[in-house]
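Severity: low
Component: inverse-folding endpoint
Summary: output formatting inconsistent between runs
Steps to reproduce: submit the following structure tokens with default settings.
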């Protein structure tokens, strides 16, 4: 089991994330970099990330397909996980354009050995389409609703 923490780039840059996570098992942490905040200088940002990644923290690009520079984040940050935004997932089983863009991103993720997670899966048809496209992990109300942390550890969910 791991914990995903959504964070904006500024908290990585100013060292807050490194200080907050100093005494936790780093291999169980995934930092989700939000697409809703810009990264001014990717080389400086990568340097700020380096000590965290060297300790085992993984990186996810959150909300891919939305926000400021979605594709630039994907290209520049060498993430371990790409999370497809709900805007690409919604009705993917009915929309050729969404399906085509998701297919391209899934192929890209496979080519760079990056895990793909679909966000916002809210019906069985979306989940089935994503499985056909090769997405192995998903989250959303169809899968399960948010739950208190004390209940989460006992859940046994197979998707």
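Observed output (run 2 of 3):
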């Amino acid at each position: 089991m791991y914990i995903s923490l959504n964070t904006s780039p500024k908290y990585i840059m100013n060292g807050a994330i490194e200080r907050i996570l100093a005494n936790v098992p780093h291999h169980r942490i995934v930092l989700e970099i939000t697409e809703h905040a810009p990264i001014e200088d990717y080389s400086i940002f990568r340097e700020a990330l380096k000590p965290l990644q060297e300790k085992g923290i993984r990186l996810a690009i959150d909300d891919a397909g939305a926000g400021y520079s979605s594709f630039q984040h994907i290209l520049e940050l060498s993430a371990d996980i790409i999370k497809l935004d709900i805007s690409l997932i919604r009705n993917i089983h009915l929309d050729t354009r969404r399906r085509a863009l998701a297919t391209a991103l899934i192929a890209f993720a496979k080519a760079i050995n990056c895990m793909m997670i679909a966000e916002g899966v809210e019906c069985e048809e979306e989940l089935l389409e994503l499985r056909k496209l090769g997405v192995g992990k998903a989250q959303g109300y169809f899968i399960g609703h948010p739950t208190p942390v004390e209940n989460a550890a006992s859940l046994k969910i197979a998707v």
